[in-house]
Amino acid sequence: MLVQIVLELKSRCRGAGQFTEDRGHVPGSVLAGPLSQRIRNANTIAEYPSETCHFRGWRIRRFPKADPSVPVRCLSTFSSPPSYLVLKFARLTRLRFVSGVSLLSGTRRRQLEGEGQQAAMRDSVFKCCFVPPPPAPGEEEPAADMAGPGAKRFLIFFDFDETIVDENSDDVVVRAAPGQALPGWLRETYREGHYNEYMQRVLAYMGEQGVREEAIRAVIEKIPASPGIPAVFQFLRSNQDLFEMVLVSDANVYFIETWLRAAGAHQLFRLIISNPASFDARGHLVLQPYHSHSCPRCPANMCKRKIVREYLARRAEERGGRPFERVFYVGDGANDFCPSAVLGKGDTAFPRRDYPMHRLICETQRNQPGVFQAAAVPWQSGEGITACLKKLLGR
């Protein structure tokens, strides 16, 4: 039976604009991003009456033939895209809607180029009905959530740099620069709390020096995983029906997706939340901040505490008011302490032993007893994380 997603491309917009969302009853959501700044299209997303099916991990609707006589309603409209958009779907009479379509990032569009589908994606989010291609070599298809929203019992957040991988990807990318080093004048431009701005300048310099995607991808793919992390992924892959996985990182989307795909772990994650990064027409990697916030503890471009809080609230709504039984957070840095403080008494934080997150948790527990409510389980190897999760499941 033909699987179709109906996407009606509406009038084009030239100027920048703000995302507007239709706040009706919300049966699902669509993630879009990070999107190229070149995109300036207003799009509408809708679907004809159909029955539920699952395709490559997305909950979509299936119907044998599109009926042009059925009216299509505009659900959400966006023009100039921010780094990530969440399109809320209103429940409309006689219409049932897609509840899990991923609008492709610039990185993913480039990946499709060799498969002859780049033309369908150029200059717009979608110009046609699109069926995702098979996963790249080394990737596995995600397990379909056959029980629908709310089926998974546990939620686990991961940091990326020095958590999933054993190095800082921002340091590693410099190995692709001429002489594998940055000039002193550039290093001196760093300001505390503004590392994202500094990396924007670093990547701009590398682009001006002729460093292109192939060189950057080569060094990122070679970053070693942290000890025991492959075993954690193997355990979670075998228990995808129980664990929802989300990656929250102050690195950038391009570095993260590149490494995960090379490791065959990309499709384990329901969502990757990081700073947008994509290659422009010159072949330069352009980095942007994720968002702005008012948290005094976190860097200007990202507060993981705000991200985690908003994600938990949104998922509880999408799950019909049912929160996850337990939430886990795996991290290492000072900016991982802030979101782990959101966790409750039944939750668990996994700080990498003797790294800033671990030291801040110990300091808080010592100086402000009861403030940090989650259980803290330090790890040197991911095998300790796996052992804790197995114990939770009685295995």
Key features of this structure:
395 residues, 12 helices, 6-stranded parallel β-sheet, 3-stranded mixed β-sheet, alpha/beta, 15 strands
How would you describe the overall organization of this protein?
There is one protein chain. The protein is an alpha/beta fold. 27% of the residues lie in helices and 16% in strands. The chain has twelve helices and 15 strands. The chain has helices spanning 106-111, 118-121, 169-172, 184-187, 195-208, 213-221, 229-237, 253-263, 304-318, 334-340, 356-367, 382-392, and strands spanning 7-12, 29-32, 41-45, 51-55, 58-62, 85-88, 102-103, 154-158, 243-248, 271-273, 277-279, 285-287, 326-331, 348-351, 375-376. The strands form five sheets. Strands 10-9-8-13-14-15 form a six-stranded parallel beta sheet, sandwiched between helices. Strands 6-2-7 form a three-stranded mixed beta sheet, with no helix packed on it. A two-stranded antiparallel sheet has the order 1-3. Helix 10 links the parallel strand 13 and strand 14. The radius of gyration is 21 Å and the shape is globular. The two termini are 40 Å apart. Mean pLDDT is 73; it is low at 1-147.
Number of helices: 12
Extract low-pLDDT stretches.
Answer: 1-147
- Work out the helicity level: 25-40%
> Rg to the nearest angstrom?
21 Å
Give the overall form: globular
Which strand order spans the largest sheet, edge to edge or round the barrel?
10-9-8-13-14-15
Which class do the helix and strand fractions yield? alpha/beta
Strand count, sense and barrel status of the largest sheet are: 6 strands, parallel
Total DSSP E strands: 15
N-to-C CA distance: 40 Å
Mean pLDDT across all residues, rounded? 73
How much beta, percentage-wise?
15-25%
Write the element-wise H/E pattern from the N-terminal end onward.
EEEEEEEHHEHHHHHEHEEEHEHEHEH
